[in-house]
Amino acid sequence: MDFTKQLVVVYNKKGIQTIEKAVTYVKPIIELDKKKESILLAGDGQSNPDEYKQINSSTGLAVNYYMILNSLGKIEDLTFEDKVAKPLKCNGGLKANIDVSYKRDGKIIYVESKFLEPYYSKNEHLRESYFNKEYYDVPNEDKDAWYKLLKDAQEFKYYNVSQLCRHLMAIWRKHEKDKTPIVLQSVTWSMPDVFIEEMESAKDKEKYKKLKRIIDEEAIKCQSRIREFLIQIDWKNMAFEALHYNDMLEDISSSKYIEEFKRRYFL
Questions:
Q1: Residue 172 CA, distance from chain mean position
Q2: What is the pLDDT of residues 202-221, one digit of tens each?
Q3: What is the four-CA torsion angle of 167, 93, 122, 46, rounded to 10 degrees?
Q4: Tens digit of each residue's pLDDT (9 = 90 or more) over 134-145
Q5: Measured between alpha carbons, how far is 243 from 267 in angstroms, rounded to an integer?
Q6: For the chain, is the Cβ count within 10 Å smaller at the N or the C terminus?
């Protein structure tokens, strides 16, 4: 299924105004200031200046949600496409590029945002370098636990646990000596029934209902495995949460933009 075409069809039915001459793009609910936009555009995943405005963009979803949250004064130091650190200490490789970071209630929060990706792509396979313990910049007594976590991550089919493990490694390297509470959140969009019902094919409807259940189950399994790992290595100031945008509407409910956000993302 071409989700971009599907979104355009549903957006047209909902009367959501798209940017002229580019029907697959839509204006952000709250425009980014120049500093935030320049940092975002320097991110590894932004191949053109309007990429985060694509209607099927997970970065765009994150921008819209967290800019609303930021406008309510609930968070501070909001950054998109935060280049945290290299996960491994070997030569080469890029810094982990985490979709969102901010501070709230004395905590540093990192967010990996997913919109439609789990429904058309799969959990990535890590490079061989991630299974060479010599490249782990962690205490020797913890290397086996990290190795086992990375191996276990490969067993997931749709939920991108491999990416989350890379992010964990990068966060460790940046904040190893930092006692500030840190949270890594995997925030995904669970495909609502109202979106599924817009599909023309009964076969597609059944396919995506089943896929939704599998992805949600993998999210629960991922959360359990990473939390178990954090206890195992005694990383006391680090926490992990697997969340859905669908369940995070209350936090932005007082915003004048709440209805537009819900309409745009079928919530």
A1: 18
A2: 998 999 999 999 999 999 99
A3: 90
A4: 999 999 999 999
A5: 15
A6: N
